[in-house]
Design goal:
It contains 25 helices and four strands. By secondary structure, it is mainly α. The chain has a two-stranded antiparallel sheet. The longest helix has 74 residues.
């Protein structure tokens, strides 16, 4: 045993000596190693809750049903499991895809029979179960595609970090660790696994482990693989000039090919977006126009039939198409979500200052209060019917122009109370979409608005940072110490965000006697705490690392970083320009077209339902009075019209569909424009849900009132 320890000690000694001679710096391998436990803990802390729940559901399903996929399907699932870091088996995934629809059919069908007394929902859930089987078998692939999209959004930055580190230290393993430390998940998790596979001796060298990982991107991001191969090739270059050229070429490759791929994506996107627009927005809204006539002449159609179509099937269909569109998005350069950083996390809450104390209030409580308030308003017409001892049919509130508040009617055939058909009930029903739209909107807005402001400040700093770094690099190259250079550059850029950052560092050095590294990265007073940006943090890390090799090395490193930042932002601006037409069209649908058109449809529906309902009542009265004009076949005319679906329920269905449509299209628009930027997604959801829901309710209210006044004037001539 002792002999083995001596051999390992001797081996480590010579490996460290070789590294020291090859790199020029002493390297202690134990301090840089990433143990398997660290990787597992990192993975567990990052994995989203829905992925963990899916893992548990698959494990549970596998215990009950054991359905093994075909060999071809099994290979596809295994590949997806490895990419998405899922802890499941192909059998578990297939078992869940079968068991979940079965439970849905049984539970949903039983609830439908209990609540509505009809087997309709059993048949509907049976169809839903059959439809859902294929998407459920694709969940590992969908998660892998989502993982790829998030990862591809960080690839330009990943190559930038690796190249930046390799310029001053030609060590691929340390460069990958540097990138893994400064990137956000999921790509950071992938890079850590590359190193973990070496530590666990799955692969013997970092090149072998990296090439195995790059193979997973073979069919998705060739430019990422080409860029890394150029980085690997730089290690073997004999001259420093050729080594640096190889590194610069790698960044150039991923930037240029990213632009080309996004150009093709923008052109190819027009057809699927048009299809989504027609099938998910235009056709359903056109269907709403004729639906009132259909339900008025078909007594079997109930409000929950429309709900199952518009609030279940259509949203799932639109979301599925949108996800497929997003899955083809190529590499991009997107913003990072800073909301989980320790110093920023508190800004997810509402901050209330009472004296010197700061109270943090979760937006969830505000959203719940908003939901309860508006939901009770929307539920009031149903609640009135439930109150015992009130004859709601004959004792209703009469509004101006003879319109009734709730207007419950007695069905001629079943002699049951049906409704509410009144204009008052329709107006109160707006509380239901307001409850969902405003509650969700304010939840997302309040959780993100403070953090988005912080990130916008950081983005301003990033925009100026290239020129600031260039100045800073020049000062250091002239022989000025970094401690003094921070002060001089800060004063020369006074009044800008970059100037504030450099002066903040300078003040920490002068007043607190800190080193450059502590002045920037100290957990309590470090300047980086006030400017949370991965790009700025990594640039300052490069400064600290390269300063150990001398001022000239640090100067060259910073000026190269400055050049890289400019190139990255140039490509990002070109990408945004490519997507401008498509994005502006989708935003117009979210913010204006869909809410307004749907609101007009509700107004028309209310008028048609009112006219048909009143005519049916008048014709019934004529028949009861024994009018001579109602002889023969004319006696059946009152029964020609059904009761129809009350506008109260119809508006709730359409209003909720508008909220769902805004929600789905906002996620899709953000995904196309920014990739996997969750912070901006939450902020846009907040703005669009609040604005779109309020606009829809205002248009619905105005058009409904106008059209009902017109209907009252028309009907007055028949009375």
């Amino acid at each position: 045993m002792k002999e083995k320890e001596d051999v390992n000690e001797l081996k480590d000694k010579y490996i460290n000596k070789l590294d020291s001679e090859l790199i020029g710096l002493p390297v202690t391998r134990t301090s840089e190693s990433i143990e398997s436990l660290e990787y597992e803990e990192f993975k567990e802390s990052y994995m989203p809750k829905h992925m963990i729940l899916y893992e548990r559901a698959c494990a549970f399903s596998e215990k009950i049903l054991k359905i093994k996929p075909s060999p071809a399907k099994e290979k596809e699932i295994i590949d997806s499991i490895q990419i998405a870091h899922l802890n499941i088996t192909p059998t578990g995934a297939m078992s869940f895809a079968v068991l979940f629809p079965l439970l849905l059919v049984l539970v949903g069908g039983a609830l439908g029979i209990v609540l509505f007394g009809t087997p309709y929902f059993f048949g509907f859930m049976l169809i839903m179960g059959m439809i859902m089987y294929v998407p459920l078998t694709q969940i590992p692939k969908t998660m892998a595609n989502t993982w790829r999209m998030k990862g591809s959004n960080q690839m330009v930055l990943c190559i930038f970090y690796v190249v930046t580190y390799m310029r001053h230290t030609s060590n691929l393993e340390l460069a990958i660790k540097f990138a893994g430390d400064h990137l956000n998940p999921p790509l950071s998790l992938d890079l850590k696994r590359v190193l973990w596979n070496i530590e666990t001796e799955k692969y013997s060298t970092v090149t072998e482990s990296l090439d195995a990982y790059l193979g997973t991107w073979e069919d998705f991001n060739r430019e990422f693989i080409e860029a890394f191969h150029l980085i690997e090739a730089s290690i073997y270059e004999a001259s420093e000039e050729r080594r640096v050229n190889s590194l610069e070429k790698s960044l150039e490759v991923i930037l240029s090919e990213t632009y080309e791929r996004m150009l093709h994506y923008a052109h190819d996107l027009k057809s699927p977006i048009t299809m989504l627009h027609m099938l998910g927005i235009i056709l359903p809204i056109l269907g709403l126009v004729i639906l009132p006539l259909v339900v008025s002449f078909m007594e079997g159609v109930k409000w929950y039939h429309i709900l199952s179509l518009y609030n279940i099937l259509l949203p799932i269909f639109v979301y599925y198409i949108g996800k497929n569109i997003l899955s083809t998005r190529p590499t991009g350069y997107g913003d990072t979500d800073i909301s989980d950083l320790p110093d920023v996390k508190k800004y997810k809450n509402i901050l209330i200052h009472v004296g010197k104390n700061e109270i943090q209030l979760s937006p969830l409580y505000i959203s719940i209060l908003i939901f309860i308030f508006f939901f009770l308003i929307g539920f009031l017409p149903i609640a009135v019917k439930m109150v015992p001892g009130i004859d709601i049919v004959n004792h209703d509130i009469t509004l101006p122009l003879g319109m009734q508040m709730f207007e419950y009617r007695m069905d001629n055939k079943t002699h049951e109370v049906v409704g509410p058909y009144g204009i008052g009930a329709t107006i109160l029903s707006l509380g239901i979409p307001l409850a969902f739209g405003l509650a969700l909107g304010y939840y997302f807005k309040l959780r993100s608005k403070n953090i988005i402001k912080i990130r916008e400040e950081a983005k301003k700093l990033e925009a100026e940072f290239a020129s600031a770094l260039f100045q800073f690099g020049n000062r250091i190259g002239d022989g000025i110490p970094a401690e003094i250079a921070f002060d001089r550059v800060g004063r020369s850029m006074q009044g800008t965000v970059s100037g504030s950052f450099f002066l903040y560092v300078s003040q920490n050095i002068q007043r607190l006697g800190m080193s450059v590294e502590d002045a920037i990265f100290d957990k309590k007073v470090g300047a980086i705490n006030h400017f949370p940006s991965a790009l700025i943090e990594s640039s300052m890390k490069v400064l600290v690392e390269s300063s150990r090799k001398g001022p000239q090395v640090a100067s060259n490193a910073l000026m190269n970083v400055s050049t890289y930042i400019k190139e990255i932002h140039k490509v990002d601006e070109r990408l945004q320009d490519l997507m401008a037409d498509i994005i502006s069209s989708m935003k117009a649908q979210i913010k204006f077209m869909s809410p307004v058109i749907s609101g007009i449809v509700i107004g028309i529906t209310s008028m048609v339902t009112t006219i048909i309902g009143k005519l049916s009542i008048q014709l019934t009265k004529f028949q009861e009075q024994g009018s001579s004009d109602m002889g023969g076949g004319m006696a059946n005319i009152p029964f020609l019209f059904g009761n129809g679906v009350p506008t109260y329920y119809f508006q709730i269905v359409v209003g909720l569909y508008v909220v769902q449509l805004i929600f789905i299209l906002t996620i899709l628009t953000n995904g196309i424009e920014n990739g996997a930027d969750k912070l901006n997604e939450r902020f846009e959801l907040g703005r669009n849900l609040i604005g779109g829901t309020i606009l829809y309710c205002i248009v619905t209210l105005i058009i409904t009132l106008i059209f009902n006044i017109i209907a009252s004037q028309i009907l007055s001539s028949f009375v």
